[in-house]
Amino acid sequence: MKPLPLGVRVAAGLAVTALEQARKLPRQLAGLPLTVVSEAMQLSMRVQQHVTELAIKGDDVLSGLRPAEEEPEWATFDEDETSVTTAPVTVEAPADDPWEEEERAIAEMPEFLPSYDELSIAQLRARLRNLGVAQLEELLRYEQAHESRPEFVGMLNRRIATVKAQS
């Protein structure tokens, strides 16, 4: 038996598919409002994400054009609260002491930003606006000597260049 032409076979498959979909329609109509609402919410969330991404990019570009804003007196942050610190006790450690390297790393941590290692890149970006060139360069040296994360090094280099250009 000779096969039917492709167009006839496709048309027959289309007719069967349409019939199957028509039979499913009553069940699909019950869930249609929920599907529409769900898709509308997904679209809304995607739009919000795009708007937020554009705002972040805009902030990055515009931050170099305007001076850093001073923090209001009423704004307090956990990092701003004064904590009781004691002077580190220096003990002569033997050369094979496993804790020596960690103690040296802690001692090297920038005093003006003691929580530096725990900061995300966004948290660090927010704090950079209040730092001078010397502090930024100290952070850059610390980052390069320890974790040397490319995104942190790049951001610090860009901020140093921006602050120097503004001076």
TrEMBL record:
Annotated Acidic residues bias: 70-82
Residues of the DUF8129 domain: 122-159
Stored InterPro entries: DUF8129, LipDrop-assoc
Domain of life according to the entry: Bacteria
Pfam families: DUF8129 (PF26450)
Chain positions covered by the region annotation Disordered: 68-97
NCBIfam families, per database record: LipDrop_Rv1109c
Name recorded for this polypeptide: DUF8129 domain-containing protein
Organism: Lentzea xinjiangensis
